What we know:
By secondary structure, the chain is mainly beta. Helix content is 6%, strand content 62%. It has helices at residues 3-14, 247-250, and strands spanning 40-51, 55-66, 71-83, 89-93, 96-102, 105-106, 110-120, 135-145, 150-165, 171-188, 191-207, 210-225, 227-228, 233-244, 254-265.
Amino acid sequence: xxxxxxxxxxxxxxxxxxxxxxxxxxxxxxxxxxxxxxxxxxxxxxxxxxxxxxxxxxxxxxxxxxxxxxxxxxxxxxxxxxxxxxxxxxxxxxxxxxxxxxxxxxxxxxxxxxxxxxxxxxxxxxxxxxxxxxxxxxxxxxxxxxxxxxxxxxxxxxxxxxxxxxxxxxxxxxxxxxxxxxxxxxxxxxxxxxxxxxxxxxxxxxxxxxxxxxxxxxxxxxxxxxxxxxxxxxxxxxxxxxxxxxxxxxxxxxxxxxxxxxxxxxx
Length: 267
């Protein structure tokens, strides 16, 4: 499907949109610093396909406000597809995240929301789908409304996994950090162009008390649009390219990301 056809598709979806607020909290790999409004629950599905390894990641995320916008609970269930030790593709659930996010600041121009996460050892570490132990993650999201058309988002955080296991059962404590920034351009209030840059640096267990570092760098240009499904529900589909830069470009990493959010006022 050509990029022009995709643009027309999203423009067509926008014709069904209401003239309500601009689209928020629907970035792809970035977090926007806006918690859910009271009674509004968001269901997010994301699918990433990466060449040249033909790996894919599907995630289901559910964001739920706790009494009001100040406190938010969410969980993330990842499903990973990758080549196993025997070369055959395997698909399994990875480590699940339980998240608490606090709306530290939310004004007309700037919003801030730190997130604290517990990583559950739900993935099978013997097959490379998890770390086999409980881990911890922190992420700070900052969103800046430059004007009516442009918004800038920033993310920075880290992950710590004590005594993580590899497939051989060898252990080492792992530390990783992430950084990202993005710009969002409102072609209309309900149809936006996005460009994200995300960097992840993670350690992996290579032997007993030994580890190595893996890093990924992606530029993610995409488009999203929103339309109403009744008075209390908004649907936001999106599509983006995953373009490896730096070390990820050397490995010719590239792919596609599909996004779908359903946001509805349930109480």
